[in-house]
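Folding Task

Wanted — backbone structure
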Amino acid sequence: MLIDINGDGKLDWLVTSAGVNGFHSFSSDGQWSPFIPVSALPIEYFHPQAQLADISGAGLPDLAMIGPNSVRVYANQRTGWQAAENVAQKDGIRLPLAGNNERALVAFADILGSGQQHLVEITSSSVRCWPNLGHGKFGSPITLPGFSVPDAEFNPEQIWLADTDGSGALDIIYAHRTSLSLYINESGNRFTYPQNHCLA
């Protein structure tokens, strides 16, 4: 896996296989460093619902296990991860679970343009965002209108998130069989009517 594990702004080659856990850093001269073992790998690293995202606000990929009312965070320490911390959410806040609904995409993404990884749920007719408050806490959900795909056609695996216009807020790209529908993010407030681009 290529990921910036140590926060130096360069991708590292993370290796987690057959008891060999560590990474190679990519240097400014275009070379990979010798293998650097990680100090600790979370026991839940390989859990199907484990997600890597900057949860603590330190600019590093933490490991998160999202529950409906709490988040278990393994904070990144640049050369490994700390022991788990269970963070309860504020009363009334219920978080979406990745893989719990095959008709929805649940992911971490900056759709508010704030520079943070927020928890996002996208269905055929709605985009909801739980703002990242830092250290495993999330705010009440915000709905961003404008995105819609006919329910019979919708497949969450055909959604791509990317900042296509340089605004800092991620746009939604929906891949059809022969075209792409681009929904531009308007500063984390809503998505525009789709722009359709043929692939033929």
